[in-house]
Amino acid sequence: MACNGDKSLRDGVQRTCRIVTVPTDRQSLQYSHTMVAAPKSFLGSLSAFESYDTTVHIGTTFPNKSLQLSKLLTAPNSDELIKDLATLVSHRGVVFLTDQDIAIEQQKELGTRLGELSGKPATSKLHKHPISEDTPELGADVSVITSTGGISRPEAHMTSVRASKGWHTDITFEPVPSDYAILKMHTLPSVGGDTLWASGYEAYDRLSPVYQKFLEGLTAVHHADSFIDYAKRFNVKMQDPRGSPENTGTHLTAIHPVIRTNPVTGFKSLFVNQEFTKRIVELSPDESRDVLNFLSQHISENHDFQVRYRWKTNDIAIWDNRATFHTATNDYGEELRQGNRVVSIGEKPFLDPLSKSRREALGIPFNVVPGL
């Protein structure tokens, strides 16, 4: 993929990339983008709060209520704190905060400000899930994640003998997908119901240089057929528009680069997922299937760049959908598992060929041999 301009990502200049048009049975889709943001630096405002890296490659935990998001939102240096939190989430993929007292309106406010303070377009707001309800209590921009069905427990996941089929990145079927997501779990089963995340940065870094370059020239079709089927079956009118003027219509289909650059970190990340990525545009059907199967296996089987979180009541996870994949664990039978999720809309995905991988940018050696 070629972009106009020859300066590095860190200069913050704009570069407009080529357009790919792919005819489908629904419409003519276009993939294009403009780079707008330089990587952000840490301001140091979170250093006073107790935290630790949950694993080597992904996850940071703020334990023992060390950081209360409700207080962060009203602090005198609130903007600085939220900027640093957004930068931390983008670097570590996901951040966990224990026993939070944040109310739903505050959760929405945080979802909005995380993206705004890290440079997302002014037209990007909170996402309205296509099949979510617009309730007086929550509104259309809050998704109820529940074990009773709907958006969070599609039948395909419930009937599959392979739990790995649940790995996904939120709403990649939208032309302008998510930057950050915030999930607060308020009702949990007695045991089970953990959530796993995997690092898109490390998934990219583990590929050979030749395979990385091969993928960097590719784009993929993302499609939410399960939500379309759900809407038709239960006569649900889809939300429209959905957090961006470009996220409209009922086709729920978009084209994105297979490798994208996160504008907050400048790192390259793998950007396909088993739930929504249907085919690679530039390859034959057989080639596309083989590549996507390999990449799905690459994500689900490398447990050393995953983190598994055991929820407690009122815990919150904040993750960067540009650089992670996640899946719930449906191992709790008929018990109720429920939480509220806010998803922020970010920028159109892009790949800057002058951006770097996480290991390259941070000087992490590639010759580390996993232990026994």
TrEMBL record:
Coiled-coil ranges per UniProt: none
InterPro entries membership: AtsK-like, TauD-like_sf, TauD/TfdA-like
Keywords on record: Dioxygenase, Iron, Metal-binding, Oxidoreductase
Keyword Protein biosynthesis: no
GO molecular function annotation: 2-oxoglutarate-dependent dioxygenase activity; metal ion binding
Domain TauD/TfdA-like: from-to ranges: 76-337
Transport found in the keyword field: no
A GO CC term attached to the entry: cytoplasm
Similarity comment: family membership: Belongs to the TfdA dioxygenase family.
Name of the protein: Taurine catabolism dioxygenase
Organism: Collybia nuda
Taxonomic classification: Eukaryota, Fungi, Dikarya, Basidiomycota, Agaricomycotina
